[in-house]
Design goal:
It is a single chain. With 229 residues, this protein is an alpha+beta fold. It folds into two domains: 16-134, no CATH class; 145-220, Ferrodoxin-fold anticodon-binding domain (Alpha-Beta Plaits). 49% of the residues lie in helices and 15% in strands. The chain is built from seven helices and four strands; from the N terminus they run αααααβαββαβ. Strands 2-3-1-4 form a four-stranded antiparallel beta sheet. α1 runs parallel beside α5 and α2 (48-68) packs parallel to α4 (94-112). The longest helix is centred in the first third of the chain and has 25 residues, at 16-40. It starts with 15 loop residues before the first helix and ends in a 9-residue tail after the last strand.
Length: 229
């Protein structure tokens, strides 16, 4: 069922029909993956350039595999050519990286001629993604938040906010302390999980009365770096 549509290519020739089939199926699968990803990320948002990359990636990978074939020298030459290119892009989250590898795997299967396997594999992964998304899998947990507080140097930062944090958070951890404003102030960085039903405004108001109404920043903790910009 999953036999390759390609014949042996020891003579270095590339069949027109086979290449058109492989690249064509790669384009179709790329479009399917791209449209599916836009639907799955309609709430979180997505970048146009990333979607375009997903769409063309399977066809590009299929073309690369067709060009390399079973020629070892050609494979090393291709690797050397790609080594000259420096890719500069912002790191994505784990889901984005997984979808990129998903698109590459689909293109790899198309380039090797296993178009039936590529279609079955793409359909299976997309069904899994839709089931996880529509079932709200792993959305029950509360996200960690990052709290930054600026305090004057005369306050003892080690315990000054312990009672406030104990009242409003399930867990709090002092991640970082640094001096600011020419050493006249401290900036404290906490990782916190708010209690269910706790008010962020009440937390900030309580801290403001103790830090002299200096800067306070509260936001979601980044999944990648663990720090706010």
């Amino acid at each position: 069922m999953f036999e390759s549509i390609f014949t042996a290519t020891t003579d270095g020739a590339i069949s027109i029909s086979s290449s058109v089939t492989g690249i064509g199926i790669g384009i179709i699968l790329g479009l399917v993956i791209g449209f599916a990803y836009t639907f799955l990320c309609r709430k979180d948002g997505y970048g146009k350039n990333f979607i375009l990359g997903l769409i063309i990636l399977p066809a590009i990978v299929a073309a690369v595999i067709l060009l390399v074939g079973s020629n070892v020298a050609r494979a090393f030459s291709m690797a050397g050519a790609f080594a000259l290119v420096r890719f500069r892009s912002a790191p994505g989250n784990a889901k984005d990286i997984a979808v990129v590898f998903f698109a590459m795997a689909s293109g790899l299967a198309c380039g090797l001629g296993y178009v039936t396997f590529a279609c079955v594999f793409t359909a299976a992964i997309l069904v899994l993604l839709f089931v996880l998304e529509l079932g709200h899998f792993a959305e029950g947990g509360r996200r960690k938040k990052q709290l930054r507080i600026t305090i004057p140097e005369n306050l003892n930062y080690e315990s000054v906010f312990d009672d406030i944090l104990d009242k409003n958070t399930e867990n709090s951890e002092l991640k970082k302390v640094k001096t600011t404003n020419m050493g006249t102030m401290f900036e404290l960085t906490y990782s916190i999980i708010m209690k269910k039903g706790a008010s962020e405004k009440e937390l900030i108001d309580a801290i403001r009365t103790r830090n002299g109404n200096l800067n306070i920043t509260l936001g979601l903790e980044s999944e990648d770096s663990g720090l706010l910009n």
